[in-house]
Specification:
Layout (H helix, E strand, L loop, with lengths): L1 E2 L6 E3 L6 H18 L1 E5 L5 H8 L2 H5 L3 H5 L11 E3 L5 E2 L2 E2 L3 E6 L43 H27 L30 E7 L9 E8 L6 E7 L5 E4 L5 E3 L6 E6 L1 H6 L9 E6 L6 E7 L8 H6 L3 H4 L23 H12 L1 H17 L1
Helix pairs in contact: 1-5, 2-5, 9-10
The chain binds 2-oxoglutaric acid and fe (ii) ion.
Length: about 375
């Protein structure tokens, strides 16, 4: 059932600049965190030119020849970075009618596929399998999509900064010291906890997604991406490019609410790890994309998944979240509705739950890079 009346909150981040308005903003954020789990932000401070510089290249990125796109296939990447063709991915047993490029914070290779570890510069033991998830992007040839790499890197840096700023507002809305979570992101400020210094820095992931135009004859609803919770990070910042609709959010009463593109905004939602850390007080809200014809133009979107260190454990995260935050979980909440792979005692760290997720969604790539034994272990 579709609810037409419910609207998602739109928070004006410029209110953070005025002492008086900031309290109001934090009140709205508190409500959005604990009662809605999905929101828009506006006046976020990212220059429109920086956003446009990337979005204007999306048609050229996807219009590369099939051969050029295939040469960037995710199959080449133990980090599951690269291109997935139309309807190659499956959610809820059904094909997602979209194609996408997965990019991430650009990193050097931190492991040697032959088994030994190639980079211990961060003083870490990279023998843990999940460190193989970290690694470099597959960039299109500059001549195919001129300016792409620069535009992407600038967009990445802007989104990273926004995401860190937003986490500070969440800390204020939680009434915990600003900077409490900084150490997760290797931002060691005075308020952050030195005990977390040993973590490797996170790698944020950014997907560039295209849902195709649908010919006018095809008016029935199709699955752009099936109903899911985000599992790749702490927070998600989604840019819906253009005016094409499709995103829907499941509200507490079980109705799907439309989340149309709103000029100048990002949609913000919370990942599984955030839900697990707060023991369900803040929900990783379920959402999907319906791709409904007739639609003359394709729909593009760019989700930014704020990464966390792969060696972070759920217990370490929980220690940063005070009881008064967890206590805001609705009393009616059934305990088994909180099960997430990050809470499963078999997977001690975020890296393991991430590896499991990638193996389950891309079995063929996983077999190539991790082997049958590892794949069978994580599929059980
Ligand atoms: O395309 C969208 O608007 C949302 C995509 C999404 O939810 C995802 O990729 O996790
Ligand atoms: Fe999502």
């Amino acid at each position: 059932m579709m609810s037409e009346t419910a609207a998602l909150p739109i928070l004006d981040l410029s209110m953070a600049d005025s002492l008086h308005q900031k309290q109001q903003l934090l009140g709205q954020l508190h409500d959005a965190l604990f009662n809605v789990g999905f929101l828009y932000i506006k006046n976020h401070g990212i220059p429109q030119e920086k956003i446009k510089a990337l979005t204007s290249l999306l048609p050229a990125l996807f219009d590369q020849t099939n051969e050029a796109k295939a040469s960037l296939s995710k199959m080449n990447s133990p980090h599951f970075l690269g291109y997935s063709g139309f309807a190659e991915e499956v959610t809820l047993g059904q094909k997602d009618l979209r194609e996408q490029f997965d990019f991430a914070t650009e990193l050097p290779i931190v492991y040697d596929p032959k088994g030994s570890t190639s980079d211990t510069s961060e003083g870490k033991d990279f023998s843990k399998l999940y460190y193989r998830l970290r690694g470099p992007n597959q960039w299109p040839y500059e001549k195919n999509v001129p300016g792409f790499r620069k535009a992407f890197l600038e967009y990445h840096d802007e989104l990273q900064a926004l995401s860190y700023r937003f986490v500070h507002l969440i800390e204020e809305a939680f009434d915990i010291p600003v900077g409490t979570f900084d150490a997760f992101f290797q931002r060691l400020t005075s308020a952050s906890n030195a005990a977390y210094k040993h973590h490797v820095p996170p790698q944020h992931r950014i997907k560039l997604v295209k849902y195709p135009a649908l010919p006018s004859g095809l008016a029935r609803e199709n699955q752009g991406v099936g109903a899911h919770k985000d599992s790749s990070g702490w927070l998600t910042f989604l840019h819906q490019v253009g005016e094409e609709e499709g995103l829907e959010v499941l509200d507490a009463s079980g109705s799907w609410i439309r989340a149309p593109p709103i000029e100048g905004t990002f949609v913000v939602n919370f990942g599984n790890a955030f839900e697990a850390a707060t023991e369900g007080a803040v929900k990783a809200t379920i959402h999907r994309v319906i791709t409904q014809g007739p639609r003359l133009k394709p729909r593009y979107s760019i989700p930014f998944f704020q990464g966390l260190p792969l060696d972070l454990t759920v217990n370490e995260v929980r220690q940063c979240i005070p009881d008064h935050v967890r206590a805001l979980r609705p009393v009616s909440e059934r305990p088994n509705s909180l099960v997430s792979s990050f809470l499963d005692p078999r997977w001690d760290s975020l890296g393991e739950s991430q590896l499991r997720k990638w193996i389950r969604s891309h079995e063929n790539i996983a077999i190539k890079w991790y082997g049958n034994e590892v794949v069978s272990y994580y599929l059980q």
